[in-house]
Amino acid sequence: MTKFPHIKFPYIRQDFAASLVVFLVALPLCVGVAVASGVPAELGLVTGIVGGLVTGMLRGSSLQVSGPAAGLTVLVFEAVREFGLPLLGVIVLATGVLQITMGVLKLGRWFRAISVSVVEGMLAGIGLVLIAGQLYPALAAKAPESGPGKIAGLPGAFLDALGDGGALASLALGAGTIAVLVLWKYTPAKVRKVPGPLAAVGLATLAAFVLSLPVATVEVHGLLGSVQPPPLSAFGELASVGLIGTIVAFTLIASAESLFSAAAVDRLHDGPRTRYNQELIAQGAGNALCGVLGALPMTAVIVRSAANVQAGARTKASRVLHGVWLLLFAALLPGVLSYIPIPALAGILVYSGAKLIPVRALAVLWRGHRGEALILVVTAVSIVAVSMFEGVLIGLALSIVKTAWEASHLKLEVVDKGSGPVDAYLSGNATFLRLPKILDSLEALPQDRPIRVDLSGLHHLDHACRTALESWAERHSDAGTEPVKVTAV
What is the rounded end-to-end Cα distance, in angstroms, of the chain? Predict the structure, then answer.
């Protein structure tokens, strides 16, 4: 045994203090995400515990913190509604295995190649659905199932609440929670040592108890009672196309959110940089264990990670310790959860959803890159109107088309001296996306004059363009003029 144990953990004091801050931030978020996802509140704590004790121990990003994320709430809710809670474990386990596989194959960095507009559009769409969905529990009402239904039903839900004392009390509590979160940064520095989410939930819980407000509270089942590993029979559903699509969506979104979070956390500190493949393996290991336990999926969460860095954390010990505190709370004080009002958790998630909508980024994109702004908006609207998976696919497809279109720079220069052959010079990239422009320009050339086409300036000529050029040359030559002369690329 070493004589000076503090040498082995030189930053234990800073990490210990930071872990308490992260625990206080994570606690209400773990519970809120679970309730919004339609699963027992304790499962959110299980995912937070795994994120601290398992993912926190592994290599990757030393300071970012993992747990249940608001960004996956909508997808989890849809999956539980469509497939049932037992199959959630199968989905999360398969997601973890895929993440580990991608990390081993060193595909972690490729997730950073996903268009930022698609990712921000995805988060914006999630934020919109999350806000619309959580306004219903704040109104003590049941939310419609579809995204458009949630938005369309809000005016009626507000009107119904006006004549219901319980609904008005619930709305006031949710609105008060949001107000505390918004105004917390203006409180004195000593007061701000208490994290905003914890203060908001604590004040709402106190108000509901003291005023005896008729609002719904969290149902408590006990930690062990809530953990339900998926039955073996559930794995037979992996042959379902719908389930596979959901697993792909979980994997894509969880991985992208975690790795984008890692890049953001790296900008907040001067410590070791993230190793993306190892971080993907760490996230996969955590999700695989969460799947075995039947808990929620995890991602790295920027809110908790930023709190960890700002609280002075220096090593991964802080995130591991935050998992210890979550475990002790879930084991020793589970009954405390039953006092937390549902409207307060709804208020926290409405606030979180609003922060997912990149208003400033959209304004910047609109001024300088309107194509990217359009991708962001279309992705978000598609997620609201259709579903998470289809919305992300639409965004990715638009991003690919835009990139291909911009890469297809093509210039056609025609030199016509009034007599003799007409010279046409093509330069750039001739792809099928520019085919209409090429054909319109060539077919406009004189039919009764010899044509010389110079393709030596092309960097790329795809099969569709080559075939179309050959067909045009044959048609032009059939008109009785000299055959078209082509300088090959």
Answer: 73
**φ and ψ of 10, to 5 deg:** -65, -20
Tell the residue number behind the tokens 């954390």, with chain if given: 313
Nearest to 92 by CA among 235, 225, 263: 235
Length of the chain counted residue by residue: 489
Q: Give how far the C-alpha of residue 378 lies from the chain's centroid of Cα atoms, to the nearest Å.
A: 15
Which pairing describes strands 451-461 and 422-430: parallel, antiparallel, or unpaired? parallel
What's the DSSP call for residue 341? B
Instruction: Give yes or no for a contact between 68 and 298, defined as CB atoms under 8 angstroms apart.
Output: yes
The kind and range of the H/E element at 291 are helix 276-293
> What letter represents residue 489's amino acid?
V
Q: Which residue, chain included where needed, has tokens 């475990």?
A: 327
Average pLDDT along the chain? 85
Q: Which residues of the chain have pLDDT under 70?
A: 1-9, 112-113, 479-481, 489
The contacts of residue 410 (CB under 8 Å, 6+ apart) are 426, 427, 428, 429, 430, 434, 437, 438
Please give the Cα distance from 84 to 87 (Å, whole number).
Answer: 6
DSSP track, 245-285:
HHHHHHHHHHHHHHHHHHHHHHTT-SSPPP-HHHHHHHHHH
pLDDT number for residue 107: 86
Specify the pairing of strand 410-415 against strand 422-430.
antiparallel
Quote the pTM value.
Answer: 0.73
Record the tokens describing residue 7, joined without a space: 């040498």
Beta strand 451-461 with 485-487 is parallel
